[in-house]
C-alpha cells in the first residue's frame, strides 16, 4: 500500500478510470451505478491499482454524460445517493484505493441553479457567473464554433445577450474572471475533500481562462494565475493527486502545470501523441495512418522534457478516445499480443499510468447502426456530414474508428447475459465479442491481457527505476521498433516493442544479452522479434 502522507505518493501510483454509466449495473436499469462500483472493488484490488478516477457522478441532466453538472454537491439519482458515494469512498479506502473525482469547472449545466438565475436578467447577481456578450438575434458576437459543432453563442431573449459555450449549448461556460465564481468552486472542492476524496481530475482545465473577444479558448492569459490560486485555496490543504485535462499543453506549459513545488497540479493529460494521426487543419474524423516514428519520438520528447522538472501522465485510452488495441494495435489475429505490447510500451515509461476500464481486458471498438449511437458528438458529426452530402459508409467508417462510444460500451464481466453488466437492457449495446473477451475469462488465464497489466503494476511497485529512471530512445528512426532504456544508478530497463504484423530482425545489444526478462508477451526466438512482440529487460540489483 502506498504511503499517502508522502507529498508525491502519486508518482508511484497507478490510476484506473471508471466510466460509471458503463461499469456495473445493480438495479437492472441498464445504467451502471455506485453500488456496482463497490461490488467490483475486489476486482480492482486484485488488479493492483491505487486510485479510481470516477468520471462525473454529480447531478446532471446527462446531455453530455455527466459533463454537464447541475449540482456539484449531490450524486445523480441514476448512480445512487450521496450515502452510496460515502460508502464507496470508505470501502475503497479500506482496500488502499483512493477516489479521484471528476470536476467540471469550465462550465455547468444550463439547469444549474446559477445559470437558471443568470439567464433571468442582467441585474441578477448570478448573471456575471457566466460569459455574456451583446448582440442581436441572428447577429452573433463573433464566429467562434463550439467543440461539438455549431456556434459557441446562444441567444437569451430575457437578457438580450448571447452566452458563451465551448461545448454543447446546454453547457454554458463559467466566468472565471469573477472572483465570486472562483470562491464558490473552491468551497465546493473543500467540501469534497472533507468527504474523503483523494484526488481530482479537472475537465478541460486549460480552457477556463478563455477570452472570447480575442477568440482565445485554451491557455488564456490568466490560466496559471487561476491554477495557482485554485491549488493554494484547495489542493495544497491536503495531500491529493490532481490531473488536468489539457488538450492545448505543450512541454513548457506542462512543466508549469506540474511543477515539483506543487504550485499548480500534480500532472496534466496532454494529447500530442493522441492527435498525431490527425492532419493539420482537418477534423479528428478525417482518418490518417499513425506516423509511428513521430509517435515514439514524441513520447521521448515528453519523457525527457518533464524528467526532474515536472510529471507525465501515461495513457492511451479514456472515455473520449477509441480503444487503443483497435486504433494502434491489431484487434484481429494479434489482439491479445498487441494489447499487451501497448501496455508494456506505456507502463515502462516514467509517469503515472492510467488504465481505462476494459483496457486491461483488451476490449475493442464496436460497430453499431447509426441509430444506436448515444454520444452527442457522434450524432452531430453524422448529421453535419450527411447534410454536406457525404456518403453514409464514409461517415460510419470514421465513427467506427474514432467515435467516443467505442470506449463507452459496457464493461464485459462474463460470458453470461448482458455480459454480467446488467440484467436489463444496456443503455449502449454490449460489444458482441463479450463471450470471448471478459473479465472472468481473463482472470482465469495466467497468460491474459489482465495478467499482463497486473504484472506491470506490480513491477512498478517493486523496481524504483520504473518510477524514477531517466529515458533514452534507441532505434529512433526505425519504422517498426520502439525501443527505449530507463536508468537509475545501477538499475536499468530496456523496453523492446515490435510494432506491427511482421517479424523484425533484432539482437539484444551487449549489456542486455543475458539480462533478466521482467515481462514478455510471446515465446522468444533467436535473432528476431515476432509480430507485436514486446519485453522488458532488466539489469541491476536483484
Ligand atoms: C472533456 C470530457 O472528457 C468530455 O467527455 C466532455 O464531453 C468535454 N470535456 C466537455 O466537458
Automatic annotation (TrEMBL):
Q: Where is the Glycosyl hydrolase family 13 catalytic domain?
A: 17-408
What are the BP-aspect GO terms? oligosaccharide catabolic process
User: Which SMART domains does the UniProt entry name for this protein?
Assistant: Aamy
So which domain of life are we looking at?
Bacteria
Q: Which NCBIfam families match?
A: PRK10933.1
Q: Which family does it belong to?
A: Belongs to the glycosyl hydrolase 13 family.
Protein name as it appears in the record:
Alpha-glucosidase
Organism from which the protein derives: Candidatus Faecalibacterium intestinavium
Amino acid at each position: 500500500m502506498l504511503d499517502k502522507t508522502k507529498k508525491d505518493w502519486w508518482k508511484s501510483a497507478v490510476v484506473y478510470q471508471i466510466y460509471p454509466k458503463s461499469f456495473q449495473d445493480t438495479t437492472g436499469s441498464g445504467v451502471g451505478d455506485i453500488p456496482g462500483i463497490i461490488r467490483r472493488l475486489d476486482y480492482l484490488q486484485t488488479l493492483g491499482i491505487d486510485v479510481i478516477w470516477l468520471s462525473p457522478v454529480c447531478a446532471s441532466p446527462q446531455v453530455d454524460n455527466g459533463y454537464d453538472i447541475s449540482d456539484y454537491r449531490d450524486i445523480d439519482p441514476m448512480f445512487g445517493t450521496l450515502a452510496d458515494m460515502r460508502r464507496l469512498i470508505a470501502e475503497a479506502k479500506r482496500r488502499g484505493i483512493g477516489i479521484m473525482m471528476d470536476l467540471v469547472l469550465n462550465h455547468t449545466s444550463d439547469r444549474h441553479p446559477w445559470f437558471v438565475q443568470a439567464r433571468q436578467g442582467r441585474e441578477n447577481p448570478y448573471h456575471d457567473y457566466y460569459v455574456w456578450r451583446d448582440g442581436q438575434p441572428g447577429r452573433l458576437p463573433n464566429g467562434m464554433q463550439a467543440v461539438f459543432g455549431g456556434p459557441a453563442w446562444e441567444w437569451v431573449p430575457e437578457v438580450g445577450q448571447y452566452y458563451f459555450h465551448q461545448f454543447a449549448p446546454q453547457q454554458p461556460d463559467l466566468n472565471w474572471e469573477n472572483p465570486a465564481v472562483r470562491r464558490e468552486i473552491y468551497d465546493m472542492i473543500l467540501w469534497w475533500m472533507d468527504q474523503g476524496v483523494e484526488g481530482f481530475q479537472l475537465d478541460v482545465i486549460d480552457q477556463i481562462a478563455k477570452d472570447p473577444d480575442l477568440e482565445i479558448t485554451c491557455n488564456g492569459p490568466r490560466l496559471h494565475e487561476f491554477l495557482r490560486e485554485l491549488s493554494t485555496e484547495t489542493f495544497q490543504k491536503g495531500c491529493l493527486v490532481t490531473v488536468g485535462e489539457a488538450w492545448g499543453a505543450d512541454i513548457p506549459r506542462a512543466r508549469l502545470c506540474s511543477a515539483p513545488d506543487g504550485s499548480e497540479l500534480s500532472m496534466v493529460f496532454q494529447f500530442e501523441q493522441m492527435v498525431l494521426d490527425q492532419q493539420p487543419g482537418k477534423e479528428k474524423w478525417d482518418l490518417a495512418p499513425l506516423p509511428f516514428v513521430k509517435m515514439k519520438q514524441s513520447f521521448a520528447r515528453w519523457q525527457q522534457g518533464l524528467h526532474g522538472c515536472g510529471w507525465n501522465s501515461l495513457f492511451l485510452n479514456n472515455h473520449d478516445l477509441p480503444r487503443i488495441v483497435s486504433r494502434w494495435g491489431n484487434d484481429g489475429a494479434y489482439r491479445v499480443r498487441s494489447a499487451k505490447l501497448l501496455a508494456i510500451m506505456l507502463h515502462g515509461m516514467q509517469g503515472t499510468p492510467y488504465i481505462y476500464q476494459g483496457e486491461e481486458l483488451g476490449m475493442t471498438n464496436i460497430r453499431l447502426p447509426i441509430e444506436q449511437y448515444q454520444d452527442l458528438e457522434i450524432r452531430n458529426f453524422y448529421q453535419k456530414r450527411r447534410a454536406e452530402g457525404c456518403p453514409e459508409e464514409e461517415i460510419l467508417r470514421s465513427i467506427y474508428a474514432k467515435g467516443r462510444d467505442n470506449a463507452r460500451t459496457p464493461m464485459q464481466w462474463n460470458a453470461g447475459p448482458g455480459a454480467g453488466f446488467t440484467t436489463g437492457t444496456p443503455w449502449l449495446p454490449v460489444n458482441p465479442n463479450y463471450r470471448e473477451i471478459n473479465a472472468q475469462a481473463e482472470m482465469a488465464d495466467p497468460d491474459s491481457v489482465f495478467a499482463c497489466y497486473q504484472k506491470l503494476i506490480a513491477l512498478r511497485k517493486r523496481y524504483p527505476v520504473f518510477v524514477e529512471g531517466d529515458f533514452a530512445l534507441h532505434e529512433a528512426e526505425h519504422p517498426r521498433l520502439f525501443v527505449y532504456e530507463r536508468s537509475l544508478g545501477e538499475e536499468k530497463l530496456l523496453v523492446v516493442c515490435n510494432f506491427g504484423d511482421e517479424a523484425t530482425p533484432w539482437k539484444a545489444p551487449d549489456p542486455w544479452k543475458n539480462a533478466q526478462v521482467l515481462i514478455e508477451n510471446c515465446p522468444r526466438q533467436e535473432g528476431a522479434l515476432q509480430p507485436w512482440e514486446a519485453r522488458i529487460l532488466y539489469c541491476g540489483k536483484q
